[in-house]
Amino acid sequence: MSAVLAAEVSRFTSGTVTTAGFALGLALLGVEHYRWYKAGGGAAAGAAGGGSRDPKALIPFWFGIVCGILMVACPAGFLGTAAGFLRWGANGAGGMAMNWLTGQDGTTLANASAPGLDSYGAVVITALALALWWLRKGVAKLAKGKWKKGVLAGCLLCISTGTAAVIAQEVVGSTNQLGHFILGQIATGTLV
Length: 192
Description:
It is a single chain. The model is unreliable at 1-12 (pLDDT under 50). It is built from 8 helices and 2 strands; from the N terminus they run αβααααβααα. It is mostly helical and 192 residues long. The radius of gyration is 19 Å and the shape is globular. Helix 2 runs antiparallel to helix 7 and helix 6 (119-135) crosses helix 8 (162-187). It has a two-stranded antiparallel sheet.
């Protein structure tokens, strides 16, 4: 029974990102930053004493991107399957939009992968996922929406080549190092 379930789930997940899915991720990134830029009042309002662009307003979105990258770094389990499902859906939706707008089909851009997550990094991700689940009711609706967009963008922009690979290496590597620190320093009282 479980083998059939695994086969069924894999039909709806993707380990690759198409050019159409990547375009969708770039569009999310651009739209969120444009909204942030326009919410600040623009250059004229800033010069006239109006609102300013507060970088803190982007924290939920960028935290979502980090969470999306960490989901791609999970090789299996619920988070890895959810990342594959998001890529599958975005590849399809982006492909439909690309075909409708340009007449071209999306082609495979790269494998959606992140650097290896070790067991110490898995501790950090598990603690983060559980904390987010338990705190979900206390988070403002606007911040949740930005975070969800960031998760989708992170899943789509986390590919195995280019600048995205460098960013993913930093995010996953730092998560692994934090796990080593927590388990080495706090749990056992020794330096790792």
